[in-house]
Specification:
The structure is a homodimer. In chain A, helix 2 runs antiparallel to helix 8, helix 4 runs parallel beside helix 6 and helix 8 crosses helix 13. The relative contact order of chain A is 0.18. Chain A contains 13 helices and 16 strands. The model of chain A has no long low-confidence stretch (mean pLDDT 97). By secondary structure, chain A is α/β, with parallel strands linked by helices. At the A-B interface, helix 1 and helix 13 of A face helix 1 and helix 13 of B.
């Protein structure tokens, strides 16, 4: 290793030392997820989170400016009382662990009753058609594949029934849908998540726990089962919210922006600790660490906490629109939105025209990241930074270990107690190291 | 990728599919750690574990022979009642969270009382000498360094005070020692672990939790503190125990042994889930998976559950002695003894004469292991397989993610509930894949 490379390696070691030793991202995350709690876009809690994170960012000396960027977001309300899903067969009744999916309509008083028809994903639905589905409660029971080593692949394969199940069943006249929770675990937590009606008539759309899905499926083998559903969710008028942005102006290449970010909104249940409080505090920690080390960046480093990733992407779209209008160029955007687990590496993507040279340059960083067991691979990015693709910079997703993510994702268990502080801090150190390397070497 | 390589890659995918889908290592681990529980070498529980794992191995069709290999082990007894460590200052008393270190002597009735003298590791002890230490209770308070990314490095740096603290303090006439627990966490769990008197006069040697260590250290800044220690631990006469061994005889190279193993004994507190029930069930799962896939190995594959790794290495030494006496050759020995966390890769070592070519051959496996984000690096092995080094085969340690290991290590929290089943199964899949590759290609 050359003298110069040794100096870079030494700086990266100092990034890790600071992050693990004096990093404060655990303190910020505990406040976001335990004190503020679930913070659905448009909610009071989400505004508290906006003001809290802006205050933290403003308190860091190195930050030149910190501002709020307005964006319009949908406002969905789960309603004043807990969802009821009760199944009935042979004179018996069982209450299921249920949670309305995001953007779901409510049944209102009196609820909805119907026979339960199980389907194994969207395709099966087409085979049944209106004759079999009209007035029924469609139960989407396609399980996440436990043999996929990377759990996000299994999620990607199974989640279409959660997102589009209600819209598709509605077109055949179904009265409501129940959806198996998105996890490979067998447990009692229902997992919420976004669902989209598109141009379909809204019908109630409710997640049930995997244990309950298995129980229901077993019953359906030998019984006719009816379900009673009652919930009071509703979509209200859109409201204004904000992205939180802080910037350190670059000394020699101020027009090349390196963005680090996560999304500040979460679902209303739990504390949004892994999804995506972790990504927000990772990003703040990048700034905090660079400040503590007295680093003066060559390029502009911008920390962005996006609003409304979960049910609309209002923040990500508003950010890209404003950035494009201002003629900005994001050389790189790094999003952390896969939890506060031990980082395994980074995955990146870009416009086809510029991707290969970027990736090659990025791989020249391997020698600095290998001591920390971090890979650099193709194939990633993030929902909030996706709209920046047209600027032809590199879009990068932090890839933490994914094994435990769907233990907590979109449930009441996504709280600070389920975050390991060392693992969280390592994610911040990994992001800071990559920001440093891109700032030093370009792409 | 050649047709042949594609077939190897396909077989490895089927190893992962079986391990994650139908692997049973979680069932075995739950039995070992919850039903049998802590299983110190020589104890009744350790013999239950011997018979249980032998029964599991015998039930797997592919196993040609399964046998018990006798070994002599020390028998240490914590005593009939909980350790007491009570500190006293200014008329106040505080009970600390305490746990005698392995092999420690007891105080017996009446306990031991003495002034507490804090030292920052073994070197500081020398500076004080007999004048300052005679009759005192020496408090070793060197903390594990949180900035070490790999927690085993921090453990390696700080653990000498636990292993040798009592022996060294005893030479200066100290009455007893208290030792800060080996974890970077601030919590209330005392962590036990081996300590060795050598030729020193035995004195009681007790771990206290990190929170209590910090409290005691703070008090010592402004107060004279006395401690009262009472415990009833004792070393009994050595007893006979066993390594559990199962073998699949190789079809074309039966004299080249590939060993997979872990250690069956654990400390008496907790359930020895991560340390090292995980390594035992990883190793059984290797055999179970190869059986399920109908694999016929070319080389001899041997699964060994070693006894007495924690406080004597009786099993590992007996195994190597018998193996050498029989003129055996272990081409490779893979030990899992770092917990049931997501595997990051493998680290290996060997006699200097043969190491470089082995490592080069091993790295030709990268293309098969890279899709599973597994590295192959120099610098590992395992305590139980270490004595096989003279056979000039390759010694390999599974390297799981280490961030959470010292949350549980040697405490009552090392139970099955703190193991993530997917992470556990991935460790088994990684080991099985490496066994397959070595069996197919040699080294």
């Amino acid at each position: 290793m050359s003298q110069q490379d040794a100096e870079h390696a030494f700086f990266i070691k100092s990034i890790y030392d600071h992050s693990l030793g004096e990093g404060e991202c655990d303190t910020w995350l505990q406040y976001l997820s335990d004190t503020i709690g679930g913070r659905l876009a448009g909610s009071e809690a989400s505004l508290e989170a906006v003001h809290y994170t802006q205050k933290v960012l403003k308190s860091i000396d190195i930050v030149d400016t910190a501002w709020l960027q307005p964006c319009e977001v949908p406002l969905w309300d789960r309603g004043p009382q807990k969802e009821i899903v009760r199944i009935q067969y042979d004179g018996q009744q069982i209450e299921l662990n249920a949670l309305a999916l995001g953007n779901s309509e409510g049944t209102g008083e009196g609820g909805v009753t119907g026979q339960v028809i199980e389907v194994n994903g969207l395709d099966t639905l087409e085979l049944l058609g209106e004759a079999e589905l009209k007035g029924k409660i469609v139960f989407f029971n396609r399980a996440m594949d436990p043999t996929k080593v990377r759990t996000f692949h299994a999620y990607g394969e199974a989640v279409d029934q959660r997102v589009y199940g209600a819209a598709r069943a509605s077109k055949y006249g179904a009265a409501a849908v129940l959806v198996r929770s998105m996890t490979t675990n067998k447990d009692d937590f229902p997992h919420t998540g976004v669902q989209l009606y598109g141009d379909s008539e809204p019908i109630p759309s409710i997640a049930i726990s995997t244990n309950d899905a298995d129980r229901l499926s077993t019953l359906l083998n030998s019984h006719t089962v009816e379900a009673y559903i009652e919930n009071y969710a509703q979509m209200l008028e859109p409201v204004q919210s904000y992205n939180v942005i802080a910037e350190i102006r670059g000394s020699t290449h101020p027009d090349e922006i390196i963005l680090v970010g996560g999304h500040l909104d979460s679902w209303d249940v739990g504390g949004g600790a892994h999804d995506d409080g972790a990504g927000c505090v990772h990003s703040i920690q990048v700034i905090h660490t660079l400040n503590a080390l007295g680093y003066k960046p060559k390029r502009t480093i911008r920390c962005v906490m996006f609003m409304n990733e979960e049910n609309g992407l209002g923040g990500g779209l508003a950010y890209a629109e404003a950035s494009n209008a201002a003629g900005e160029f994001h050389l790189a955007a790094i999003e952390s939105d896969a939890g506060g687990f031990t980082p395994r590496g980074f995955a990146c993507s870009a416009d086809a025209e510029v991707f290969k040279p970027y990736l090659a340059n990025l791989q020249s960083f391997d020698k600095f990241l290998d001591p920390y067991d971090l890979f650099l691979k193709a194939g990633g990015g993030g929902a909030d930074i996706g709209p920046l693709k047209s600027q032809k910079g590199l879009l990068i997703g932090l890839r933490p270990d994914s094994q435990r993510y769907f233990d907590f994702h979109h449930t009441e268990a996504d709280v600070f107690a389920n975050v390991n502080v060392r693992e969280l801090k390592l994610g911040a150190a990994a992001m800071t190291s990559l920001v440093y390397l891109i700032d030093q070497f370009g792409l």
